[in-house]
């Protein structure tokens, strides 16, 4: 028997997957625009500076659309975000709390923006010390919630599909709701930290540097997605070929 909550989860997943497919198509277009500006030597004159800022604003809105859609999924069913079926197994290996670690943005800047001033480096290092501390706080809180989820009463609840046979089903249902609420709050904090990191890094960078940072971020996401989908397809093909006839 399919429960209403399962149907809702399936609907939420399908809606987000459809959004994500279009979002990655849009990302390809934005990446071409970013690389086009870089090919024209970045933002070396007043005209290009205006173009840079316009494109940066469009790309920021593009990422904003993702976070808005992700927030709706968190509200519907946070477990879908923490165990996302819409990413390949290869992509999921890089995830932290349903997305990339905020610290990855720092490494993308360091590896792709090679003309940072001493002041910019100092500001970035100061920012990343703060971000690492906040990452750790979220991870520590998540570990505490996981400990609760692996207690015998919770495991017993899961074995019986959410209801206990000893009359304590109501109390356990309340506990599940509390866990969902805690996980939802942590997932929201993680997304906020990702947004905060990107915005503060772009505040440190000049327009041309921001263009290179955003291009590197998009290239990484698209590359991981292509590799992941290809590997999953190859794995499924191998399983099909090895099945007995």
TrEMBL record:
Q: Which residues cross the membrane?
A: none
State the InterPro entries in the record.
Seed_Dev/Stress_Resp_Reg, TGA_domain
Superkingdom as given in the UniProt entry: Eukaryota
User: A GO molecular function for this record?
Assistant: sequence-specific DNA binding
What are the DOG1 domain coordinates in residue numbering?
A: 13-234
* Family matches, as PROSITE patterns: DOG1
Q: Name one Pfam family in it.
A: DOG1
Q: Name one GO biological process term.
A: DNA-templated transcription
PANTHER family linked: DOG1 DOMAIN-CONTAINING PROTEIN, PROTEIN DOG1-LIKE 4
Name it.
Protein ZW2
């Amino acid at each position: 028997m399919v429960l209403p909550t399962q149907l809702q989860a399936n609907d939420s997943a399908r809606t987000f997957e459809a959004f994500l497919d279009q979002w990655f198509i849009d990302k390809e277009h934005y990446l071409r625009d970013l690389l086009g500006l870089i090919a024209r030597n970045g933002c070396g004159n007043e005209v290009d500076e205006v173009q840079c800022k316009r494109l940066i604003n469009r790309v920021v809105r593009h990422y904003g659309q993702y976070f808005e859609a992700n927030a709706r999924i968190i509200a519907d069913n946070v477990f879908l975000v923490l165990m996302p079926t819409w990413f390949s197994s290869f992509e999921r290996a890089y995830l932290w709390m349903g997305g990339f670690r905020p610290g990855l943005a720092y490494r993308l800047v360091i590896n792709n923006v090679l003309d940072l001033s001493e002041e910019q480096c100092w500001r970035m290092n100061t920012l990343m010390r703060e971000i690492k501390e906040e990452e750790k706080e979220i991870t520590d809180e998540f570990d505490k919630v996981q400990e609760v989820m692996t207690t015998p009463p919770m495991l017993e609840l899961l074995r019986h599909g959410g209801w206990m046979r000893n009359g304590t089903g109501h109390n356990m249902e309340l506990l599940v709701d509390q866990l969902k609420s805690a996980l939802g709050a942590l997932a929201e904090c993680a997304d906020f930290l990702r947004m905060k990191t990107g915005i503060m890094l772009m505040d440190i960078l000049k327009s041309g540097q921001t263009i290179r940072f955003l291009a590197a971020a998009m290239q990484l996401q698209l590359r991981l997605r292509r590799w992941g989908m290809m590997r999953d397809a190859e794995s499924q093909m191998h399983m099909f070929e090895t099945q007995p006839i």
